[in-house]
Amino acid sequence: MTHDRAPTLDDVARAAGVHKATASRALNPATRDQVRAETARRITVAARRLGYVPNTIARGLRTSRTAAVGVLIPDLTNPLFPPIVRGIQDRLEQNGYTALLVNTDGDEARERAEFAALRSRRVEGFIVATARRRHPLLTEAVREQISFVTVNRSVELPGVPAVVGDDADGVTQAVAHLRSLGHTRIAHLAGPQDLSTGAVRLRAFQHAAPSSPVVECAAYTEAAGRTAAGHLFEHFADTTAIVAGNDLIALGALAVICARGRSCPRDVSVVGYNDMPFADRFRPPLTTVHVPHHEMGAQGAQLLLERLRDPGSPARTVLLPARLTVRGSTAPVR
Amino acid sequence: MTHDRAPTLDDVARAAGVHKATASRALNPATRDQVRAETARRITVAARRLGYVPNTIARGLRTSRTAAVGVLIPDLTNPLFPPIVRGIQDRLEQNGYTALLVNTDGDEARERAEFAALRSRRVEGFIVATARRRHPLLTEAVREQISFVTVNRSVELPGVPAVVGDDADGVTQAVAHLRSLGHTRIAHLAGPQDLSTGAVRLRAFQHAAPSSPVVECAAYTEAAGRTAAGHLFEHFADTTAIVAGNDLIALGALAVICARGRSCPRDVSVVGYNDMPFADRFRPPLTTVHVPHHEMGAQGAQLLLERLRDPGSPARTVLLPARLTVRGSTAPVR
DNA sequence: CTGAAAGCGCTTACAG
DNA sequence: CTGAAAGCGCTTACAG
Q1: pLDDT tens, A176-202?
Q2: Which residue is nearest nucleotide D9, judged by alpha carbon to C1' distance?
Q3: Which of A134, A171, A185, B271 could in theory staple to A204 by disulfide, Cβ–Cβ 3.0 to 4.6 A?
């Protein structure tokens, strides 16, 4: 990166008139007290003067501790993930760790390739936001004793730490809210059932509103929400309220309601899920279940860090509270 | 990460009955033809059987090529940056590189610390989305011949490659659009003037609408936009159109317009800048200048990659086209 | 308290 | 075409 080779520990040692082993000890806070204070000071000064930057790569090779973890997400441009990633980064950084972030776009082959690339960079563990309920790659990872935790979604595998939102409670709150507004014809636009969030939210909906219409969306996207909402209104035209699998699906539903010449919340109320950024600025402002995404990321990082420190510790699952946030997309039934 | 030590090149070599140097050559596509085809095959099979994953760290130490670059952004949860980062990641990945992403939160000390940490991880160069017009850290980086490019914003330093939007043209389009709607009392809520985007957009505005009101915002945030819009209406209550420094500032202006009992676009038209995700779903849907952020990131990565390949190549600046996107927040003057 | 030596897992000029 | 050796920049048990 620079023309004249970056200074090494040996350069510093020579400048301070000591052996590089001593320089190493002086510069590492954990071993600094093994060297005479005056010597240590001389070394520190020399290091600063030369602009010495320790080579983390070399240290990692020697100690096999890279202070890096891999983070798998579906797609950074999905508004759900930036706050989660930020939470991960913040907590990791507090502990001197770095995140290596990759997008899988929901593509299994791509995920495998990225996973291998991250392993070749010797990350110490993984934070996985791409978990599916059945997940061959993660099954193998467990078998190979690779440290990882999942966030937002969980995998149906014992012994995997996870941080998830209390989706069952969130959906229950959403249904109760709609009921309190007088709605009785409530439908669910369910998320993909191969994801834990999709399955848990659907089950909670069925429990809260037995024998109500359900249409499954192919993905957590606006387009999928639009398709599903189309089907819903074809078969259940008298629906007055929708619990959407997430905010993007809700956006799709909103578009369909509008396209059919009806209005939200006057004719149909809609509740989203996640409280994505700027959901309060939408037209109409979206009533939705808030999930603490930054906290989710931070706790996920915390769990992994604990795992790395003590691989034998029991796998914890952290359930984060969901909170219904009432805005303009829900109103009393007419 | 696993209990039984991960297999090394030496393990593979032994399994295949060759020297590790030969195994190295066989497994590296660039040197594979230096070894007899049959031998190479045997080695490949052994590698796969053992589940060998090359140690990028060790390779990096030996070759001093880490295939990693540092990416500096203000804050990942600012909706401007995910598409830029995604563009960077995508292009980098195509070239076998990885991005190490850090947030600075606009804090200079933090930026310095992160920069040093990234250097200690021996990134080969930097993609900087945090550039200020005067930027001591970047000035030093130039002096130390560190490879870097800026994206979105530029630094007033010669020889630094940059990818920026055509902000002057974007603002010119915005003003022309408002003029065509009959507006004559047009104001600018300018971005921070220590950033190139803030300065360029302001200059273009002053050129397009000489002696029109301008209020500078302290930051590219909704809160700053609210404050600035408050000042604007205090002094220029008859303003009928606003060109906002960016979409977040526009959102602040919208809130103030509403709070003053007036309505957008009926009483005041507002044009944003950036076309942030979901700007079309806002109330009202935001007329704004679209900037190709994914492309911006991709080109930034491309520029850096070229720089790394040929450090002597001249510093290019790429100007990406801006395109006014008319939606619901602008209307004919009453 | 400090030094000398070994070694982390690779790659690559140098021999043969 | 393959092997033996050196070395990338560190850390750390082992001596002294």
Answers
A1: 999 999 999 999 999 999 999 999 999
A2: A58
A3: A171
